[in-house]
Amino acid sequence: MFRRPAALLSVLALALTGCGAKVASDDAADRKDAAGYPVTVKNCGTSLTFDRKPSRVVTNDVGITDLMLALGLEDRMAGYVMPSYRGRIDQVAWRDAYDKVPWLSKKAITKEIALDAHADLVLAGWNYGFGEGNDLTPASLKKLGIGAYVLTESCRNGGSGSARGVMPPLEALYTDLANLGKIFHVEDRAAKLVKEYRAQIAEVRAAHAADGKKPSVFLYDSGTDKPLTAGAFAGPDDIITKAGGVNITKDLKDTWTTVGWETVVERDPDVIVINDYGSPTAAQKKDFLLHYKPLAHVSAVKHRRIFTLDYADLVESPRNPAAVRSLARYLAAGRAD
């Protein structure tokens, strides 16, 4: 415990006497934030207990920021960290909320950013903000008196190395919405969103339930020597499946991971989905795929069946259900982009 000199305590006492109304107001706010607490949620297999409602949350990247804003929690945020590319925010219901929250950095999140923002909670994911290499982990934040919540899509699964994913991607989205709803006492908002998203996806699935052969789909994120793609626990796997396709790398028990081009050639996808996050552009990625000789005989390339979705559509976020609908329409149409 820090000890303050007696003279300083006297000054503080006089200052507090002179602004009694503000102190009373702060006390009322403190009581309000503590009402109904503590609450406990399960996050990546760990129990997290909150003694009060977080009031200075820092989020890392667009999907995680979307989770907070979709729940109407912008007033609980100290800011967000994300690169310049945020996807089409003009098409989301929480567009105006982005203007109300400080954009703290367009570079990697750090402990210094969290400290400067006086954060009481950081939302990020493993290899997605959190990582031992940059010394930003829930444990390192705890030493600074800052809480941490790990994006469920990124939970480490106990497999080899740093493999991630413990549940189907859309279930991870619903889990995080429910947990944040509980943490911030907005359970009704969270439940309403989950119900809406489940209904949207059920409608899409019903529309293609009677279809015959499901087109095979390869998610191309980036890479020329080896492509970065989506395994069974990354958002695109569920998006592709619910849209009526089959992810050709669904056998990989990980989230975002690399494969060899020979795997793509061998599995011969009917469609390729490009993950667009600005640089290189989706057009540049498409041009590479169409002119990369090893892919010349791959069905998706021969027939120019290449579709683009935003990064914000494909990482875990409230934009996932709309991405399911968009991709389902493309797969059903069966025509070149």
TrEMBL record:
Signal peptide location: 1-24
Pfam families the record matches: Peripla_BP_2
InterPro entries, A to Z: ABC_Transporter_SBP (IPR050902), ABC_transptr_periplasmic_BD (IPR002491)
Domain of life: Bacteria
Keyword field: Signal
SUPFAM superfamilies, per the entry: Helical backbone' metal receptor
Domain Fe/B12 periplasmic-binding, residue spans: 56-337
Family indicated by similarity: Belongs to the bacterial solute-binding protein 8 family.
Annotated protein name in UniProt: ABC transporter substrate-binding protein
Native source species: Streptomyces benahoarensis
